[in-house]
Amino acid sequence: MQRRISLPLKLFLIVFAFVLGCIILISQLSYRYVQKEIRTNDIFYTNQILDKVDQYFTVNFSSFQTILFSVETSVKANINNTEVIKKQLRELYELNSNYVSNIYLIKSDLSILGGSIATRIFDEPLPEREPLFDAADKNRRTTFVSEPYKSKYSGWTVTMVRYLNGAPFPMAIAVDLDLNAIEETLFKINKQEQMNLALITASGKIIAGFSENKGPLNIQDHTFSIGETSAEQILNTTETSLQLHTKDGMPVSLLKKPTEKFNWTLISINDESRLKAALSRLETYYIELLAAGFLLSLFISFFIAKYIRNPLYALKTKMKRVEQGNLTTTITINRNDEFGDLSRAFDRMLQQIVELIRRVELHNELERKLEIQVLQSQINPHFLYNTLGSISNVIRLGQIEKVDVVIGSLISLLEYGIDDASEKVSLRQELSNVADYIEIQNIRYNRNFHLIEHIEAGLMDFPVFRMLLQPLVENSIFHGYNGGGIEGPITIHAYREDGIVIIEVVDQGEGIPADRIKHVLRTEPSEEEVKRKRIGLNNIHGRIRLHYGDQFGLQIISIPKEITRIRALFPTDSQKGDAS
């Protein structure tokens, strides 16, 4: 047999799951929102750093341009004095040695006048200078910036070269940038900001940056790739922000920004270490939040389940007591809510049930008394004595022909009266019984109580109580016609009206005074009726009301000295039995 789970436990589990689910959902949404905000702020912060680095290169570019123009001016002023030119080149180099590796003039034979110590001594022609001189010669109005290369005297460098216009012989001014200084600057930023910055040429060559401890890169021959994505592919995309994966599957975020003055691109590669550190701190907070939410869910669920369990168990206990037959059980639930309403409604229902049981008992008791009264009255000794006396008088007067009539009518009355009083009979049977009764009374009182019947078609077989009409006719004889003192007709009507079957007995005797009518239908029979064992009108009235409801029963309409109508009202479908 499957074990049933109680409602409070179900409610506890539902509320616990709901509250905990809400907390988890809110926590996850909050976590994702904060994660998104941290990532957005990280991108914004990285862009700010890239902007500052670009500004740094813009300033440097201006400084390098200033150096070139200074050399150009000095050379033009001292074109015939080589020593002065060398001195000025040396002074400019020493003044800017933190940013440049060398400042020099390239002659058409690729020899130089240099500012650095090495090039002041070794000024022989070198093939590496040929591309620089040719580029300056082709672009005589602009400054040419070379690709990074390995210089014999300046090391890993980029050269800015400008053709010296107005000189008596072909010559170019060159400045070798100190890429080590630029790289040191980028390394400081990488270390301080936990970033990985690099300066890339348009062809994907690394000018400076990408410290060796920033693992996700593959750096070979001063170029790089991230996973399956090469530097050229990264530079060719129009997007400034990329999400890539290394060969190990590690996700990285890449941001790129073109420099304003150089044809270079600043690239930042973030392996999300900063983001992970921030999220790690955030995860600790959310774990604490979930633990608190778990405890809160337990508390709320227990409180709600207890709030419902106590009145529910009280009601259950009350119902078990009622089930065991204790209808007077009292368990008060002083709650101003649905449980309080339910408890009060249950108490009212119990009161109504107790009252209903009491009424049913009274109903049954009253019905029993009425049926007993009918049984006692079925063989009325006074009626029997008077009838036998009437037979004796008829014989004494020599009216032998009436003896058989009286005896036959008496036998029919006795046979009709000894049957079950609770059994219903047809209106036809009641009329036959009343005809026998009036026949006996006519002989007894030597009167002519003429019986008139007006029965609507279809009502002869209408079911009525046994001994319904005889008490009504008896009332007409004893009260209307003064117990046989006067004679007159007795009319019986039966008809339908507004869904009700009306059976009425009409006499034209003395009538009933208005002040007595309201006492005739009392629930208890009069002393005379009890003494004479006569069925009273109250008996008929009570039996009809008990069976069919208070809207049915007897009605008395009487005009003294003129007419009295006693109506018995029945439902049309009286065969359905009791209306209780």
TrEMBL record:
It comes from Paenibacillus xylanilyticus. One of its GO terms (cellular component) is plasma membrane. It is a multi-pass membrane protein. The keyword DNA repair does not apply. Keywords: ATP-binding, Cell membrane, Kinase, Membrane, Nucleotide-binding, Phosphoprotein, Transferase, Transmembrane, Transmembrane helix, Two-component regulatory system. The lineage of its organism: Bacteria, Bacillati, Bacillota, Bacilli, Bacillales. GO terms for molecular function: ATP binding; phosphorelay sensor kinase activity. Residues 306-358 form the HAMP domain. It is found in: Cell membrane. Coiled coil: none annotated. The keyword Aminoacyl-tRNA synthetase does not apply. This is Histidine kinase. InterPro entries: Bact_2-comp_sensor_kinase, HAMP_dom, HATPase_C_sf, HATPase_dom, Sig_transdc_His_kin_internal. The chain crosses the membrane at residues 12-31, 285-308. Pfam families: HAMP, HATPase_c, His_kinase.
